[in-house]
Amino acid sequence: MTLGELERVNLIAGMNNVGKTALLEALFIHSGAYNPELTLRVSALRGIEPFHVQPAASGPTPWDVLFHALKVEETIELVGHHTLVGRREVRLRLIRDPAVLPEVGLPVQAGSRGSGSLPSSAISCALSLECRENGNTSNYFILDESDRFRVVPVPPVPPFPAFLRTARGGIDPGDAERFSRLHARKEKEAVIQTLRIIEPRLCDLAIAVIDGVAIIHGDIGLESLLPLAVMGEGMVRLASLAMIIAETRHGIVLVDEMENGLHHSILPQVWKAIALAARRFDAQVFATTHSLECIIAAHQAFSEDRVYDFRLHRLERVGDTIRARCYDQETLQAAIETGMEVR
Amino acid sequence: MGAAWLEIQQPNILVVEGKEDQLFFAALAAHLGAPDIQILPIGGKTRLRENLKALALAPRFATVRSLGIIRDADAAPNIAFQSVRDALKAARLPAPAAPMQTASGPPATAVMILPDSHSSGTLEDLVLRAVQSDPAMRCVDGYFDCLVRECSLRPGNTAEAKVAVYLASKKEAAKRLGEAAQAGYIPWDSAAFDEAKRFLTELLRMRP
């Protein structure tokens, strides 16, 4: 599948089970560049907690679900072009062959890349990640050591950050820390302004530690502050999104099911806030949606802006392949005016 | 924004200019016993290019075998045809070399310019040709002659005005052209419609 004509803000639409979330996950892993551990994180975000395979066992591995139609013998190839790093190719390959696994474990045994030694027989399976960029090829492995996962060699920090926000509601445990960092940088006002789209009475945000847990609270003019979660899922989600964009400077923000928790009437303002934040912090946004209102709201918001740096990409299954159809401003306007389906 | 969202439901798509044309050609397709044609009123002259691009990106467009476009010649049939060709190319769709010819797909495409591919005019001119032998037309022509003679009045669009007056002669007056076609007021057996019938029939036969 190829996704082209990307913009600063990209909205992904399409039928159920066409691969919208998988596309976000692929972008996330590709953005991580050298870190095969992200493969376990995306599974965990889908609710599939990593599990271990016993040595010599032939059952499923925690990485099987990454492979299309569970064809684990194939190689996953993710190729992207980035203004900062140019062309980057990431290849993922599952290794279960007992004849090959000892070679994967060798660097660990030699102590050159990992820490300590490990008998190769303790590695039940592994996932290899090959990254090619700027003419250089580097290889990393995540090893299932039956009781733990280990990445060898230790991957460097990728050139740009990426953050994946799942469709699930609830509070992201990292939000309080994100807010603290924003506060320290005197940038919390941007989040407050964004949240006023939902709650115009909001005049301040603060962290309160309750029973050892840091919780973001909002001041809406009552006698005491209210936890953000009490103000509704939309507040939590929008706050999280605003903070993630602010924290992902020059990076990529991935949001699954953008419209979750947000009333359709505020969606145009939400998109305007996202556009503003994405430009300010130089972040690129990829979001998925099932909602026509969300698509129309985005188009409306960006059409009213000075720059239309937005694209709608609709994924469609054609035979055995997934095709991406890209709508520019003119075409999306025509589709909306004529009532042509775009989801 | 439309109330109901258009979805591709048939393998053969006919794009026409507006709602009246949609009703008119739906009646003709029904007369031909051709239910497999989905008629979309998205071919308005000023928005054809953008609308075809949106159509080509629409869900299930990959299932479309044939795409026909019918539009009025207005003052210049060659310019009208060229504008449709340009719109097809902008939407990355195959463009036929001439009206009533087929371009291989997928989807296969064909264009018809009304009234007859080489004359100026509109759908209403085609209808007037079909009803020319109807006795009511003598009265219609007489009415417009009278307007010129007695009042020095000429309608802005003579063909449209004459069709409106002709339809006023029918049992249920005040129907617009599309509604009149649906009501059975159009003589489909007239030779004037042969080219349109051939176009729709070919549309069903076309394969990518």
Overall geometry of chain A comes to: globular
Biggest chain pair contact, residues each? Answer: A-B, 24 and 20 residues
Strand-residue proportion of chain A: 25-35%
**Intertermini distance of chain B:** 32 Å
Adjacency order of strands in the biggest sheet of chain A: 7-11-12-1-13-14
Helicity range of chain B:
40-55%
Question: Spatial order of the strands in the main sheet of chain B?
Answer: 2-1-3-5-4
Principal-axis shape of chain B equals: globular
**Largest sheet features of chain B:** 5 strands, mixed
**What can be said about the biggest beta sheet of chain A?**
6 strands, mixed
Distance between the termini of chain A: 18 Å
DSSP summary: helix tally of chain A: 9
Helix/strand/pairing category of chain A: alpha/beta
Q: Provide the gyration radius of chain A in Å.
A: 22 Å
What's the quaternary structure here?
heterodimer
Low-confidence stretches of chain A: 108-117
Q: Can you give the mean pLDDT of chain B?
A: 94
Summarize the helix and strand pattern of chain B as letters.
Answer: EHEHEHEEHHHHH
Which ranges of chain B are low-confidence, i.e. pLDDT below 50, for 5 or more consecutive residues? none
- Number of DSSP helical runs of chain B: 8
Provide a descriptive summary of the structure in words.
The complex is a heterodimer of chains A (343) and B (208). By secondary structure, chain A is α/β, with parallel strands linked by helices. Chain A contains nine helices and 14 strands. In chain A, strands 7-11-12-1-13-14 form a six-stranded mixed β-sheet, with helices on both faces. A five-stranded antiparallel β-sheet of chain A has the order 2-3-4-5-6, with helices on both faces. In chain A, a hairpin with a 3-residue loop joins strand 2 and strand 3. Chain A is globular, with a radius of gyration of 22 Å. With 208 residues, chain B is an alpha/beta fold. Helix content of chain B is 44%, strand content 12%. Chain B contains eight helices and five strands, in the order βαβαβαββααααα. A five-stranded mixed β-sheet of chain B has the order 2-1-3-5-4, sandwiched between helices. In chain B, helix 2 (48-57) runs parallel beside helix 3 and helix 4 packs across helix 6 (158-168). Chain B is globular and about 55 Å long. The mean pLDDT of chain B is 94. Classes of the chains: A alpha/beta (343), B alpha/beta (208).
